[in-house]
Specification:
Strand order of the largest sheet: 1-2-3-4-5
Distance between the termini: 30 Å
Strand content: 25-35%
Low-confidence stretches: 1-16
Number of helices: 2
Helix content: 25-40%
Structural class: alpha+beta
Number of strands: 5
Oligomer: single chain
């Protein structure tokens, strides 16, 4: 799975010793962390809505990151779908998270 990543800059939040890159899957960020003499690969899902970044926590399991990507992509779509209404951005985010996690 580590070969699915290629180097580049990506928003990762915390800085850790290692390299960060994009995976070949849109919305999945890959991070290589070196601890002692071993290198570990972590994946996380990330999407952006109106300069607001939503991301999952890093996990070693790519399948988990893909599941998280499905959830946060649904949240992103719900936020964007409500942009024509009178709700504020913050209200749309709260509503989208609540509705998505309720399902």
């Amino acid at each position: 799975l580590a070969s699915d990543c290629h180097s580049g800059s990506a928003p990762t939040g915390k800085k850790r010793a290692g390299s960060v890159g994009f995976s070949n899957i849109r919305g999945i960020v890959c991070e290589h962390v070196r601890r002692r003499s071993k290198t570990y690969t972590y994946y996380k899902a990330a999407v952006v809505v109106d300069a607001f970044c939503i991301s999952s926590r890093p996990k070693a399991d790519l399948a988990w990151a893909l599941d998280a990507l499905i959830v946060i992509t649904d949240i992103r779509h719900r936020i964007a779908a409500g942009s024509q209404g009178s709700e504020t951005f913050e209200d749309r985010v709260r509503k989208a998270v609540r509705e998505t996690l309720h399902e």
